Amino acid sequence: MDPSRPHVALLPSAGMGHLIPFSRLAASLSDLCNVTMISILPTVSTAESCHFNDFFNSYPKIHPLYFQLPPLDSSAYPNADPFFLRWTRIRESASDIFSHLLKSAQFPISAIVTDIAAASAILPLAKSNGISCYVLFTSSAAMLSFFKYFPIYHDSNPVSIGNVELPGLRTVPFASLPRPLHDPNHLFTQSLIGNSLTMVKSAGIIVNTFESFEPDSLAWLRGEQSPPVITVGPLPPVKMAISTVTTVSTWLDEQPERSVVYISFGSRTAMSKEQIRELGLGLEVSGYRFLWVIKTSVVDTEDQTELSQLLGDGFLERVKDRGLVTKGWVEQDKVLRHKAVGGFLSHCGWNSVTEAAMNGVRLLAWPRMGDQRINADVVARSGLGLWPDNWSWEGEEGLVTAAEISHRVKEMMSDENLLKTAQKVGEAARSTVMPGKGLARLVRKFEEFA
Ligand code: UDP
Ligand code: UDP
């Protein structure tokens, strides 16, 4: 560690969708300051533990700090989402995590960057120890606007929730709200409100987005009484010191330029088995080449379904000349950079959206849960992709048919204007990331308090 530079500690919560932007931020910061990254053990998924291992091996400058969570009797929470449960447990253990950090630090911490999911517990501890606390918001500025305004909305609508009008920005329709928010008393609703009210007292909110992608939300956020909103996106992928030749990259190398549709719904399961089959048929009927990453469980360690059984007799055989289907972890940022990829059918997790934006890859948005409809709206408004907003999502009945999927895939892949607008988004994204102004601004702020 270099004592002349600030020392920042980063606390990711759980899930690859949170860990990935944290690693990217840590890697980018590690050239400019001393970085400690906290790793809460045991991780929920294997993907997270592999990622931590590879990451710490690849960035020896970053100091890993492990914190072992005490065992939990999970039978007390039979239906809880394991990632959401982990966020709750991190908040409950915040003071132990914090004391461990202070005791183990080789020299004083100038700032802590907490995951938004742990903000309500970490920020007061940082304040009482005189450490400035920043929040990494792991979604879009559009979602951040909603997140920031929701407690005010909830105050005036405590009993029933409807369309949420963000004054002077836009209305987030009821149909686009994360499902648990339909219930004002849900634990998720309460924890969102707690994190939101605390977030506004932080030293700054860091967002993995860029000005030209979300100008209206960023202007609105900065116009509100707010801590600084610091855009650092799109954060470049981390460079892992692992072997990179895989079946997927070999297969992609053999495909013509921009001919492949890439399909992924993120790091966890996203749809029913029936819908997966229908999607398979839709891809088959579309006639396009495709690379399809399927997850069949919420936590990867529980994924035991055979692909052939899932997709139905003969599917894999019928598409073998133009389709590759895998259940494994693919290096998505590499896939999206590959010249064979011409379009991306995505659930619109924010990391996936920023990766597509950075590479100028057009999207067909099929949000499935949480913040994804709010993100899909950014995709549609920015010209990065198409969003058929009548397609079903969490908690809704109704199968999107193979014919409809095939029609939309063809529409995305054949739309030259969409290709051009997506490429323009890509150019703007790459020109933003190069000078790294947002990051420099963040480091200057750390230095003020070092
Ligand atoms: N990802 C990947 N390989 C996979 C599945 C996911 O590299 O097989 C990465 C993807 O590139 C993204 C992250 O995992 O960076 C998932 O985050 P996102 O916000 O897109 O969705 P989530 O999984 O949180 O729903
Ligand atoms: N920026 C920010 N919040 C603000 C103003 C600017 O995060 O209130 C970020 C902006 O996204 C950009 C960087 O700071 O990445 C540089 O901003 P700008 O070009 O306005 O000014 P500079 O810092 O170069 O003077």
TrEMBL record:
This is Glycosyltransferase. Belongs to the UDP-glycosyltransferase family. Its EC number is 2.4.1.-. InterPro entries: UDP-glycosyltransf_plant (IPR050481), UDP_glucos_trans (IPR002213), UDP_glycos_trans_CS (IPR035595). It comes from Rhynchospora tenuis. Keywords: Glycosyltransferase, Transferase. GO terms for molecular function: UDP-glucosyltransferase activity. Pfam families: UDPGT. It comes from the Eukaryota. Signal peptide: none annotated.
